Amino acid sequence: MAWALPRWGRPSSFDAEVAETLLGKVFEVESVRTWDAPLVTLPDHAAVALFLRGRGLPESTARRLARAVEVPLSLTKRGLVAWARKR
What we know:
Layout: H1 16-24, E1 27-42, H2 45-54, H3 59-67, E2 73-86
Antiparallel strand pairs: 1-2
Helix pairs in contact: 2-3
């Protein structure tokens, strides 16, 4: 999605890749379950445009960019669930 969303993929404090480290600064992390999988499929250009609109692109831009991508488009989602206790 970096081709359409300038901030896509930039590191943030919400990234699963750094969550365990951030939690570990405050909590005793007991277990972590992560995922990194193609969990969302945008089946057509209208779905791609809607996805882009939901991330703040103007309607005309979202439609134009959606038409330029091959569909269906799979999106990989990363995340985690952590169990942690107060130190």
